């Protein structure tokens, strides 16, 4: 008689907190991007939201002059040294923000649905392999789309309790099947 | 089987009885019933009392437009809701319902005395009756109005349900799952577009559910409907029932409320009651159909009077006949079909009264063949009965003259005043309307959004036309988004086309002034009220609306607006389009607060930021206070201590030995690049060029208007790197302001800004023993006063953690602020607590921090300043780099009003009687002047000071810096307090303790 | 909730990612000290308060962080265009003005 066409599964999505790892914010004028990239041995994508990966170092272009760098622990000091060396010729800023954000992984068939509970963007159209800085329930977050149903969410540390609490409410809601 | 239920009819499940109560009496309905249909099946029409006159009322509609049948519902403990529409609420086992607005009971209500006194309660009676004398307002009028006002009872318990919200992006959103909406959705879906179809009812189908006799594509309409729905599902269309589009906002955003559990006997655990959807659609198709209007005549509100379309719905959808002996009064063909269905189902229709002189011959024949008396060119002038209609008075109308009346008995009266397209959502977009003279109704004209309007929603009638229009709308929508499909068509047999007219109140042979002819049922507005409003000078329909309250009830004028307009236009002697419609505003139907709140209740009511030290504070009994979005430890009471005692102890311990404080919320910005020092010079008032790396300085930030915006200690880490701190609340604002200048005014500067507020946990140690606590933990730095003097900064290791260590003080004591990567914050805190044991280290909260800084006269931006305080006003003129050519706000510091010596200036206050002033208290210079007194300023900060053994206060007072030693007066309700103006530097004025 | 095209991200995105930042094309005077009190007052406080097309600034604060300019109709709330902070004020064609 009634038609509720929601199709929710019993285990809607998984929330995992990722372990700490080094994270750096790189800023340089767009016209110096290529020069600096060569000096640091990095592939700095020029389009906002695009990512690159070199030797386990992940880079994300967040703004016309802003990149987020995820680097393995052993690579961090090398990068800082290369940055210091390149600074005089190519002014830029490399600031450590490893402790600023905490990363959650959201995965499972309802991961997109869960994100749609708080993010006004059309995340279904976010290409796999891209990322976006946006908003989830009034917190600024960076969403990395790693697969169809697999996302990373970088949240500033102090916002995490709220974001987690909302996600848990969403999880309970989806588990109800309605 | 209930008395009025017809076996074999309707879409209810006869094998699934559902038990519920109404006003304490137990009834049985069927699965699929609404409360209204179930009560009607049991012969109950009387469901409530009206708002103003307490007149007995029954349901007039079968849908969300219902103005009368508003009931209280209880779905279990804590789940009471007032003003539920009985025509919408689905039955569930054990549902408890009650009528409203009656005392002592529904059938005998004392408040109905208002009805006898109706002459007193005409339009604008509030304005007229409660004017004089003025002194009666507080004691007599307002309590009376408050007692009488309101509909239903407010729930008294917290809502135990949860609510959810969701964003949805779709190519095409179709609002309304009737024939037009279904056809549009299917047409659009065949192009491969992502389509969402929503309907407020428990099932899709719209009017088709009430018209089973119509045949489409060779099948009964219900079979056709089932097939269409499975085709929609197969095409991937998202179908959402019980989902109301409540508002249509800019750029095709539509708000939907989905009702998930109100109809369920046993809702699943954690299931939300409602979910708010914020839909962004590339194309919206409005297929909301049309709303039937009542006719306006004396006694048109008696229980048993019902819209003809509603009666048809109760019959066909619920298998309920609304009476044994019905009468019909109409000005539209559609009511004939309701009458025919009723007769064909075994009921009796005594008469069809048609206000029109001419009726379509086929309808007249069909009436005759069913033994229905047909009276064309007639009017209804009265109804009889008390709690239920028992008769109507019918009069012929010839050339505008009303002939003599006669009574016809009936137990139900089906009325139809024609149909008006449901234009609410379209009106939300500010789409313009046009008056259609043929159908005498408003139709949509100019669109402001990417939308299509289909079916009865744009005045079409009959399924063949409506289905074709739905397909056209669907095709138009996908064409707009660059898709295509092949248009289909449907063949309709037994269609029910029709036309009609709009009416003002029906003509009568009696005194129109005495007619109780209702236009707005819920607000008890009569035709007479509207004419009175016009007579009393209301010319705009908006004024008529507000004066009479016509259309202002929770049904938003769904039934009353057009009838009210027709009457107002007649009274004004204008055509309806010249008078115009009032504006419809969201939400379309009453919407729960829960749906708007969504997840934001309880602990997630609003976003709360927590520091790395927060778990320790919580475990150690801290009382918290909100500071911007953060929650901060306010004070740490020991057992038996109140706030005053705890703060006094924390202050004493810090000044005597050492206190520890979580300062992690301070904003931090890394300013880096070859032009960093130039940037700092331009932003802050202070000079930065000569500040060497390893030193820090108090920085003051102004707006261009010269007023203080923020402050904080800024360390120079290297020639090209500054560690800027901001106030807790100012962090985001300051970064935004800096980015603004950097991006838009000085894009040539090679400087980059990074927020590091959350990169660091910041712990402050203050007190004469601070160094002793810290020193054993520090590696790579000589902490002695000579090597690391006041206002120094260094990178070092603290407790084995990489740290940025500041020597600074916000307390007047020897002080350090230790920044470590945030994930190590708790580790450092515990190490310092351990090291501080020997010195009775005392954790303190923000209140003690405030007291200690006030004792030193350090300002808090936003507390001692309010956006109109200059550096000179605050006594911070020393922080201005006078040699600098420019900095943000410098030019304003020489504006005439800024150099005025009588500006309010920050001073200290000490009361003569030792009482503590209230923050915000107003200050006067002469307490003997006449009221209203001239205010000279106000108290900005006030505390009990343990160190001084008396309360201290700070205040801004006109010309305050020139009034040292003068006495000012603070008038309070208990009496006027005298206080002396002093310096703000109350404690250790020479700063000896800082140099320890 | 509006949709706003960020000229740096080249994407049309929900309004909650953005913050309004006042009227556009009001440059800070190169040498404020050379201005009269009246000129400085006008720079600080005098704005057009347009009814209709309005040149204004927005910041993609929860996205790329860039300030940019927009031409928005204050009557219909419709964005005519958005453009980078260093681009000149676009000329309002009669067609757009009519809208």
Automatic annotation (TrEMBL), chain A:
SUPFAM superfamilies linked to this entry: Folate-binding domain
Pfam families, A to Z: SoxG
Domain of life: Bacteria
The protein's name in its UniProt record: Sarcosine oxidase subunit gamma
TrEMBL record, chain B:
Residues covered by the SoxA A3 domain: 515-598
Stretches assigned to the GCVT N-terminal domain: 615-884
Domain called Aminomethyltransferase C-terminal: residue spans: 904-988
GO molecular function, one term: sarcosine oxidase activity
GO biological process, one term: tetrahydrofolate metabolic process
Transmembrane annotation, as ranges: none
Entries under InterPro entries matching the protein: 2Fe-2S-bd_N, BFD-like_2Fe2S-bd_dom_sf, FAD/NAD-bd_sf, GcvT/YgfZ/DmdA, GcvT/YgfZ_C, GcvT_C, GCVT_N, Sarcosine_oxidase_asu
UniProt keyword annotations, A-Z: Oxidoreductase
Positions of region (Disordered): 487-513
UniProt family annotation: Belongs to the GcvT family.
Protein name: Sarcosine oxidase subunit alpha
Organism: Paracoccus homiensis
TrEMBL record, chain C:
GO BP of this protein: tetrahydrofolate metabolic process
MF GO annotations: sarcosine oxidase activity
Range of residues in the leader sequence: none
Superkingdom of origin organism: Bacteria
Annotated InterPro entries: SoxD, SoxD_sf
Pfam families with a match to the protein in the record: SoxD (PF04267)
Name of the protein: Sarcosine oxidase subunit delta
Upper taxonomic lineage: Bacteria, Pseudomonadati, Pseudomonadota, Alphaproteobacteria, Rhodobacterales
